[in-house]
Structure formats: C-alpha cells, structure tokens
Amino acid sequence: DLAFCTSGSYPTWNDLYNAMGEVGILSACATANANYNVDTQGDVPTSCSSPYVISVTNTTSTDAKNSGAGYGLTTIDLGAPGTSILSLRSTGSTGTMTGTSMSTPHVAGAVALMHAAASFGFYNYNTLYPDSGALALKEMLLDGTDPIAALQGITVTGGRLNLYNACLAISQYVGVNPTEPFVNLISAVSDDTTLGDADGAWRAGETIEAIVTLSNIGEDALNVQGVLSSADTNVTITDATADFGNIANGAQGDNSASTFAVHLEADAPLAHTIEFTLDVTADSGYVRQLNFTLDANPKVQYYLEDCESGAADWTHGVVTGATDQWHLSTEMTFSPTHAWKCGSTTTGTYASSQDAGLISPAILLSTQSELHFRHWMESETSTTYPDSAYDGGIVELSLNGGAYARITPVGNYPKTYRLTAGGVNPFTGPLPGVPCYGGAINWAEAVFDLSAYADSSARFRFRFSSDVATTREGWYVDDIRVVGAPEIVEIVQVSDLVILPVGNNAQLFWSPSSTPSAVYQIYLSNDVAIEPVDGVHLGATSDTTYTHTDGFLTGEFGAYQIVVTLP
To answer: Are 518 and 546 in contact (CB under 8 A)?
Structure first.
C-alpha cells in the first residue's frame, strides 16, 4: 500500500515483524512495483522500521534497476533479480514473470540456504540468542552484496544479492563464547531389553527403560541430572531420576548407564503417545525443562502386500465401461521395485473414460484395525475449482461378500469429482460429486479406520476413474497393510517351579505348558511382595529349564517367576 507503517493500523505490521524477529524469524519483503522513492512516499511493508525486515527491489539481468520498481536510500536494503524470471503459474504451467515479488523469493531462499551453510559457531549463537542471530544473519547477507551502479545512493547497500558471499560469511562465523550451559534434547527411546520382553515394542503391562540423549551447545555442563515426570495416567514412572554425567561444549551425553524406568498400565489404549517432561539440572544452578514423547502399545501388522511377489490373490477389472489399466509396475515405486499402477504400461498417460478396480483377497479383520498404504497420483483437476478433480481414485470395501461401498480415509479425501465440466456441461466421469483422491500426491501414507468392521471378512477395491478427455500419469499404490490389536494372551505362571543350587548358579526346572509353542519368560525379583510380572527380565527359553548364572552368589532374597507366552 502507498502509505507509511506509522499510519492507520499499519503499526501492527511493524509489531508483528518485531515479534517474529525476537524468535529468530526474518521477513523478506517486496517493495512497490512503481518507480518512486519509498523514503518520501511510503510503502507497506517496506517502509516498516523493524530491523527484522529485509526490503527488496527488482534488478534486471544487466544489473539495472527495473524501471517499474521502488527505491529508497534508508528503506530499501538491496536488489535481487526480478525481471523475466521463470516461475510456476497458478494454472500449473511455467512462464516468465516480472516484479519485486519475483525478486524477494531469491532473498528468502538465500536466508534459508545461509542457515544450512552456517558454522557451528553461528548455530550455537543463534540457538542461544535467536533475535541477535537473525540480525547477524541479515548483516552478513547485506554486507555480501555486489555493489552495482544502478542502486548506488538509492538503496541501503547500493548492491545486488550475492548468494556465494552470504553463505561464505556465515560458514566462517565464529560467534561469542557462551557463559552458561545450553542443553537440548537429541532423542528419546524406549528399551524393553532388560525390564520387558525384549520384542522391541512397548506393550501394555510392560516396563521399559527410557534412554534420553542430550547435547550441549553452551558452556561445559557438569554433573548433569534429570528428573522425569508425566501427567499421563497410563504410565507409572518407577525410577524417575537419571545421571547424564558431564556434557562438554559441543558434545552429547545420555543416561544409558542410569536409565529411567516406566511402566505402561495393562489397560493402556492402543497406539498411544505419551508425553513426558524432563527437568535437567547441572552445577552452578543451571536448570532447563525439556519435553518429549514416546509411542506405546503399537498395533500389530497382520496383512502385508508389498507388491514384490506377483499378483498372488489380487485381481482387477472394469467397474463400469470397458477399460482397466491396473497392473504391477516397476516404473515408479515406494519400496523397493514394484507397485500397482492404474495407467499406461509405458511412459504414456492413463486412458480416458476409465473406471477400473484393483481388488484385494479376503482379509479377516481383527479389532481396532486400520488399512494403511502409500500412493502416488497425478490426475486431471479443475483449474477454476482447485478442490475438484475430473479424474481420481477412491477406496471401497466389501464385507462378507457384500456390495462395495466407498470408505473415507482419516483426514478425508482431498478432492471431489466434478459435478459439471467447463461451460457447465454435464460431468462425463462415473462418480460426480463423490469425494476422492486427485491431483498431485507424492507417496503419501493413507490411513482408513476399520474398527467398525471387526470380525468381518473384507475385500478392498482401489477404484480409479477418468472422464472423456485430458489424461495424466495415473495412480500408483504400494505397501498395502492392515494393522490391528494384538492377540490377547492371558499371562500364565508356572506353578511347579523347582530351584536347585549348582555351585553359585541357580538351576530352574518346571513342567511343560499346555500352550502350543510356548515360550517361557524368566523374571527375578528381590521384593518379598512380588506381583506378576514385577521382576527383572532375565531371559526367555522354549526349554523347561534355565540356568541363572551366579544366582546364589549374593545371598540376598530372590523370587523367580516363569511366565508362559506365545512365540
């Protein structure tokens, strides 16, 4: 707008730029597409006084200022190429465009690339002091411009963007020495090897060790301690303190030698994400609070079609009309070499007037099941109505041999089949007005909630439809899987356990279980009031005997448990 940031409601703009700058965000702003002096005539946003604004004018390929671009010795920072720039258009095609809105993305991209090229010194400084870091980056970008005659005396720098100079400067940035530790969270993982059943998944009723890795980009952190907490009632933290030792500047440390212990309640929900708070302390009074999450009680996969073993029991055919282009393809895949495709068997486009379905074998659904798959699509959409597609795909479900009906993914379909074509002609596809997948999709994961269909025999049909004209690449589907609740196995303890001393070792014997292919989990507790299963997991065996090395060495009380599980 032809105004100053001090007028009307525009001071709010300046406040917003300042607020973003205080958390490290710079704003690259395009000046007016008019040949006037912003210093004297104003422009919003490039007359704003926020130091976190980088204001940009338009230069040509000959380093002239574009005759239709604004300028200002105190308001416009630099120039960047903005004349006859190849760009993506709203129609989906490309073409050349001119304006300060072509110049400014070059500067915004330069800021992003500078962050990628930044030295460790700048990374430290910017993390500790994001507001000052943003200003330091801006200064390096402006100092690195190439002086050009056309901008001398009419812009702050008198220069045009030089990306190489800017990235070189920030890659050599040393920064200031930090005056206190600055600890960040690198990762947090659950480990069920020692306290759980060692299957790699944190399941209901199981205790795990939580191992956290921290980094320090500040002054050396001495005697780092952590206290873990969670407001989630599905967990009980049985060991909430851990020692991370000393973490020097630029180093990492973890609590693998002093782990947290967390128990997941037996009635915890499936696929549950648990939020934790970690209060970190170090010598000299340093305190920092960090947050992380751990996934627990995952659903289990009980069906997978990875498309790598041929069609197997999968079939395909026309739904209506006469064309079916579903086939196994190596042209494009998610992993590793094959995927189902509805489209040309060569590099061409799919056929028009197509309505074809890819059908799965019958799958018996367990409780709380979900259908997952990865898919890639390029289909014709409406340029006038971006939420509409002329061609696209849906997923349908047949239960117990019944008719197919469309099912809706989590988050809904992104498009809707057009009801009318251009010039309000009747839509020529088979599913007008139906929500669908359409347009450009790049190997996204689709998820469908099947919990309402437990204990049913299900077939899935991936249905792709096109109208009478204008075709694209098609629809690829890969890694189709069904997950659900794990089979519930009642915990059974061995009741006739015999423990014999063999030197310092404890030799355990018990009778075979009636559970087919039983695996025996061995636990030890030093607590007289032990409850199933509340001991340290020693190991697992399919035999009916187990040797606990040095089991009698300490002379302390010990209670063994043998729990029967499935393999």
So the answer is: no
Phi/psi at 320 (5° precision): -135, 165
pLDDT in tens, 496-540: 889 998 888 989 999 888 767 778 888 887 765 555 445 677 888
What Cα–Cα distance (Å) separates residue 60 from each residue in 28, 71, 210? 19, 14, 57
> Residue 453 in contact with residue 369, Cβ under 8 Å?
yes
End-to-end CA distance of the chain: 70
Tell me the C-alpha to C-alpha distance, in Å, between residue 378 and each of 346, 363, 433. 15, 29, 19
Q: Which residues sit opposite 296 in a β-bridge?
A: 272
**Listed residue (430, 476, 418, 459) closest to 319, CA to CA:** 430
Residue 418: CB atoms within 10 Å = 27
Tokens matching residue 455? 């204990």
Q: Is the pLDDT of residue 176 over 70?
A: no
Could you give the CA distance from residue 173 to residue 185 in angstroms, rounded to a whole number? 24
- Cβ atoms of residues 288 and 221 within 8 Å: no
Q: How far apart, in whole angstroms, are the C-alpha atoms of residue 565 and residue 567? A: 7
Q: What is the CA radius of gyration of the chain?
A: 32
